[in-house]
Amino acid sequence: MTISLYFVRHGQTYLNKYHRIQGVIDSSLTEKGINDALDAGQRLSTIHFDAAYSSDLPRAIETGRLILSQNPSDTKTTTPLAGFRELNFGYWEGEDDVKTWHIIGGPHGLNSFHDMIAEYGIDKAEDTIAAADPYKDAETSQAFWNRLQPAIDQTVKNAKDGDNILIATHGTLIRNVVSHFSDIPVNVSTKNGSVTKVNWDGTNYTVDYFNNVSKNV
After folding, report:
1. pLDDT tens digits for 88-102?
2. 1, 9, 80, 116: which is deepest, by most CB within 10 A?
3. For the purposes of burial, counting CB atoms within 10 Å of the CB of 213, is it exposed (0-12), middle (13-18) or buried (19 or more)?
4. Is residue 113 part of a domain?
């Protein structure tokens, strides 16, 4: 049994362009972001999607729609699930990313999110961000997975053997999935429009590839 989940990071947004932290807050796709999604759709156009899901945030829903517009599937819109929403960065939402990572990680010699992940692993990096939030609104790794895992499980529960499923979602979420189900390093940015393939064999999730922006998906 194999069910294939194709996780795609949304196209570039204005907050991405301005290097602002974007978790649960949202901004529109830029022109490049629209092209990121269309390009992902072209690269995935040989794969017939039997179902399509997305985060419930508009940037992911729009990315999913643009991908499906290039696909032979009759499905042209995603089913939004809050479980596929990006990590909540709490107080740090909308802040300049370089400044924020320097505030949180700098005292420990870690001046980027990538550095924190490389040093701590992604779970502890997220817990460090949450601990630094003065309002305590940022999600811990455990809180994040408490909503993410049921969403992943729902997609395969509703599928049958051989199905291909699109999931239009977010960069940090994809990094969490890859880290959780493989030994692939995730201390690199998930590119806008990149494809990450995860397989379910009825017992285990395994990562086929991560952060793919090539023609071979």
Report:
1. 999 999 999 999 999
2. 9
3. middle
4. no
Confirm whether 165 is domain-assigned: yes
Residues annotated within a binding site: 9-16, 59
Task: Note whether 61 and 15 are within 8 A (CB).
Answer: no
Q: Which domain holds residue 65?
A: 3-86+140-212
Which CATH number is 196's domain given?
3.40.50.1240
Residue position matching structure tokens 């030994």: 183
**Calpha distance 211→180 (Å, rounded):** 15
The Cα–Cα gap between 16 and 183 comes to: 27
Token digits of residue 102? 């320097």
Annotated binding-site ranges for substrate? 9-16, 59
Radius of gyration of the chain (CA): 17
- The number of domains in the chain is 1
| Residues 6+ away with beta carbon under 8 Å from 193 | 8, 9, 10, 11, 36, 37, 39, 40, 63, 213
Give per-residue pLDDT as tens, 7-64. Answer: 999 999 999 999 999 999 999 999 999 999 999 999 999 999 999 999 999 999 999 9
Q: Which residues are catalytic?
A: 10, 86
Q: Do 73 and 49 contact (CB within 8 A), yes or no?
A: yes
